[in-house]
């Protein structure tokens, strides 16, 4: 018996309402539907109906939900993905991210943890040379020298030619394409290749905490649930290398007040880092951070483990 | 222990992933959130996460869902409510409707069953006189005399001054505001008051089966799930009277091919009716249908039953 069938049966036992209704909706799925789609929608329909039954959702509440779902798409634009944001606010992207990327290692060889991509990554970020700065427009932040190595999580050896793709909001809490009047294209974005010793280094900003936009559905949820809209300050990183599993992640300054209550639930312990005072004529902070990638053949946490029976 | 807490605990036992994640998201709800909102969102977050864990939703599948949710709002207009349609296609409106309106009667005094409102009811439908026709524009349908009484479901006595609000699609499957080139405003809509004997009568069309619009998210779901997009032919009715619980419902011709597979799951046995051949110089079909309303003080099926312990 599949999990979905089991759930549907459990609902049957406890519900005061038509015990066959959910199974009837699932049974409407036709024979040409592929197995994975059938699995996903059977589970989705079961949980949607169980949710409605569990809280005995009223007509008015359902209708409020209908309006809310329409609002999500209506406020979205090519520069604003509110469905993405809504799924972040409900923890869904972090959960999917954990299932996709959490790595397992018998020997304790733990690569850098992943964190959600978020809606602000750009496929068009330029390559820049090590030692260059991603700061291209005026700001009020603390210039930071960020440096480290990219390492193999198993052998601990440096990875040559790994790509560190970094993006961050400016000191006003906005990314370049949210803020075209103040920031030039690709401000605070760049890709860097590790050298023959696996080293990368560049100048960026100590990141600044910011509020998610509160003028749409996500803002309505924050108000409704009495939650704050802040993300802790963070820098986004996407680290890739041939023959290694890529890592999409974020790093957070350890003294940020929102570390424990990130409104998109993306903080993990090994992603909390220390920006220390420093002076080299360009920067006033330094962040030293080695990044660790798992070889492509290492099993993922979500992979089935061999049976010992 | 509440249902939500229990579900979260069950997830903990079976998940290979962070066992505290869902509870952390629920715990982010602040102290000023009202109890009902907390109940709804705790259950919603639990079921959303349990769904994702149960099917081990991939990043690509999640991202497809994000795009899909945005599409729902983007295609919606004042004349097109795709979130409403989507919730119908997944059975949610029929489920909420059952919980809100199903009536219980120890004595077997069953009022007319409810069915979903759907997105085409209009608050502006005009009152018309008994014997009048709601057909105001050209059509290719079968003119029908519909007549009957509105009755008290307990006493079986006629209800005077009850309002029967009727709306239906034309023979091309479209409602007036979907089809302004062919149908005048309020074509195939009208409200009728029962007379001193509880009688109503008017001319309408034998309804025609139609496909839901397939050019948007609902259409994509039909294709993905190998489901047909048809509703059985139906007439919408909203029956109201002072001191009675109103009834929103639909009636379906018994020989319609989609009776068993209504794509919005709204058909109930007592709503299947017989349009019989007839001739009065105006109509070629007749439908005789008594409608039955529950007194306001009758308990609903969803109400708690007194404990016998």
The run of helices and strands of chain A is HHHHHHEEEEEHEEEEEEE
> How would you sum up the global shape of chain A?
globular
**What do the pLDDT scores of chain A average to?**
88
- In terms of DSSP E residues, the strand content of chain A is 15-25%
Q: How many β-strands of chain A, per DSSP?
A: 12
Of all chain pairs, the largest interface belongs to: A-B, 77 and 77 residues
Low-confidence stretches of chain A: 1-14, 103-107, 301-309
Rg of chain A: 23 Å
Number of distinct helices of chain A:
7
Helix content of chain A: 25-40%
Structural class of chain A: alpha/beta
Alpha carbon gap, first and last residue of chain A: 20 Å
Question: What characterizes the major β-sheet of chain A?
Answer: 5 strands, mixed
Query: Oligomeric status of the shown chains?
Result: homodimer
Description:
Chains A, B: InterPro entries: 1_2-HQD/HQD, Catechol_dOase_N, Intradiol_dOase_C, Intradiol_dOase_core, Intradiol_RC_Dioxygenase. Chains A, B: Residues 117-293 form the Intradiol ring-cleavage dioxygenases domain. Chains A, B: Keywords: Dioxygenase, Iron, Metal-binding, Oxidoreductase. Two copies of one chain form a homodimer. Chain A is α/β, with parallel strands linked by helices and 309 residues long. Chain A has helices spanning 3-14, 21-27, 35-55, 59-75, 82-89, 92-101, 217-224, and strands spanning 143-152, 163-167, 189-193, 199-205, 210-211, 230-231, 235-240, 247-253, 272-273, 276-277, 285-288, 291-293. In chain A, β10 and β11 form a beta hairpin. In chain A, α1 (3-14) packs parallel to α3 (35-55). At the A-B interface, α2, α3, α4, α5 and α6 of A face α2, α3, α4, α5 and α6 of B.
């Amino acid at each position: 018996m599949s999990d979905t069938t089991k759930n549907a049966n459990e609902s049957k036992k406890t519900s005061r309402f038509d015990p066959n209704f959910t199974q009837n909706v699932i049974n409407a799925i036709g024979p040409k539907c592929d197995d994975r789609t059938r699995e996903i929608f059977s589970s989705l329909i079961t949980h949607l109906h169980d949710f409605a039954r569990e809280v005995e959702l009223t007509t008015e509440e359902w209708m409020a939900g209908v309006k809310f779902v329409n609002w999500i798409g209506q406020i979205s634009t090519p520069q604003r993905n509110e469905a993405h944001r809504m799924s972040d606010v409900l923890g869904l992207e972090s959960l999917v991210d954990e299932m996709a990327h959490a790595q397992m290692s018998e020997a304790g060889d733990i690569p850098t943890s992943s964190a959600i991509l978020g809606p602000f990554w750009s496929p068009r970020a330029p390559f820049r040379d090590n030692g260059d700065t991603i700061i291209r427009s005026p700001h009020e932040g603390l210039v930071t020298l960020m440096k480290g190595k990219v390492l193999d999580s198993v052998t601990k050896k440096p990875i040559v030619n790994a790509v560190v793709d970094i993006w961050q909001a400016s000191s006003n809490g906005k990314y370049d394409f949210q803020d075209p009047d103040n920031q030039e294209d690709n401000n605070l974005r760049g890709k860097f290749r590790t050298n023959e010793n696996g080293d990368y280094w560049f100048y960026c900003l100590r990141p600044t905490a910011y509020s998610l936009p509160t003028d749409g559905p996500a803002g309505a949820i924050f108000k409704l649930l009495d939650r704050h809209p802040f993300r802790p300050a963070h820098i986004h990183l996407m680290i890739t290398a041939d023959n290694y599993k890529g890592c999409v992640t974020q790093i957070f300054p350890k003294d940020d007040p929102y570390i424990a209550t990130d409104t998109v639930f993306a903080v993990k312990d090994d992603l909390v880092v220390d920006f220390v005072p420093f002076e080299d004529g360009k920067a006033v902070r330094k962040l030293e951070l080695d990044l660790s990638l798992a070889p492509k053949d290492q099993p993922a946490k979500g992979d089935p483990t061999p049976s010992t029976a």
